[in-house]
Specification:
Length: 128
């Protein structure tokens, strides 16, 4: 496939590449450029991911199916829950983890903007 940057392109599900790894999450990369990353992520029902952050990248998540719960803040004490049709914004450097509280797989689309490494797996959030 021709990968010129000045050309409109399509990535089919079969064309996706494995994305950065966090335990409990199946990330599939669609596009990665100097300033953005986009892809598809599936989390199985009941799954809880490892703690991580995205460095200097901010993330926008769109929930297609299932539900996601994002824990963050001191001791991970804060959380938001989103379902199909909802958007979630995760700022730069925010340590968080995702879980799927629904009975079906959660499929989400993620778009990140920023530069540098986009995934840092960590032991947990800052203490409160």
């Amino acid at each position: 496939m021709n990968k010129r940057r000045d050309q409109v392109r399509v990535v089919t599900p079969e064309d996706r590449e494995p994305g950065p790894r966090t335990p409990g999450m199946d990330r599939q990369q669609a596009f990665a450029t100097e300033g953005t990353w986009s892809g598809f992520v599936r989390t199985e029902a009941g799954m809880v991911s490892g703690w991580h952050h995205h460095g200097g990248c901010e993330s926008v998540i769109y929930v297609l199916t299932g539900a996601i719960r994002v824990e963050f803040g001191p001791d991970g004490a804060e959380a938001v829950v989103a379902g199909p049709g909802d958007f979630v914004y995760v700022p730069k450097d925010v340590v968080h983890r995702e879980s799927n509280p629904s009975a079906e797989p959660a499929d989400i689309v993620v778009v990140r903007s920023g530069t540098g490494q986009s995934l840092f797996n960590v032991d947990g959030p800052e203490p409160g």
